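Bench log, entry 3. Co-assembly request; chain sequences pasted below exactly as received.
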Amino acid sequence: MLDKKIEEILNKQIAIEGQASYKYLALASWCDNKGFAGAAKFLFEHSDEERMHMMKLLNYVIDKGGKVVVPAVEQPRSDFKNIKEVFEYAYDGEQQVTAAINEIVSLSLKLNDHTTNNFIQWYVNEQLEEENLYRQILDRIELIGEGGNALYLIDLEIDKLSKGAGGMAVIPE
Ligand code: OFO
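Structure output for the full assembly:
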């Protein structure tokens, strides 16, 4: 059985991951609209990943006999100045998710819930990877600068980081 406080914080995290999935859809759509096909592919894939994170949490709550409350989603921000701002926004969001995951770690330790603590470690590692990834992208954007072919090169670089599966290719017309 799940402690009520754990059930509550996991439901909160389900909402955060679901919202992140929507946020990445909005970021990907902005990129696609501005002709950044590689970045759009990468971000559509990331949206799928966030949904997977949400489902993993949801299944854990169910497996532990808890109650899932499927959250409403807010309309995500959809306007950005440029590609750098898109990835700054994504990076900022990932840092906020990491803080939320850390709260789950702390609560599970406080309540001696080692099963949840063990489960949530997957997210701790995932956030480490994701924060690194977005920091790398921002470093590359910085490095490439704003010269003639810069936007094209940035898009190519981000495209290289996508996994090739999922993303725009699997979105039904
Ligand atoms: Fe769910 O990993 Fe990012 O936010």
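The first helix runs from residue 4 to 33. The domain at 4-70+80-166 is CATH 1.20.1260.10 (Ferritin).
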